[in-house]
Amino acid sequence: MRKMFAYFLFCSVLGLTALVAQKKTPPTKLVFQAKSGNITFDHTAHAKREKNDCTVCHDKLYAQDAKAPLAFKPPHKNGEDKKISCGSCHRSGGAAFETKANCTNGKCHVKAAAKKG
Is-cis flag, bond preceding 75, omega within 30? Predict the structure, then answer.
């Protein structure tokens, strides 16, 4: 009986270790390349706002893949009207600031500073 219990305990610990090892840690920030300036997405802040409920965005609005492209191409009004990608929240009447007039003021697109040579 003791051997059976020890075997069960060992298998349980091994299984839990495998589950913990599989859990991926989400990135804190993601940078998306764009012609009008890169977009730095603060994943940690957005997750905190949604009380770490990943299902609010994944996989409804975004794939859980940091390399997946954003489906929020200009003109952004199209994405806002369809409530897709960033436009789901970042639109007039949405949960966050709308994209209109917030393109290059540091909220979304930021151009890299030119290197002095």
Answer: yes
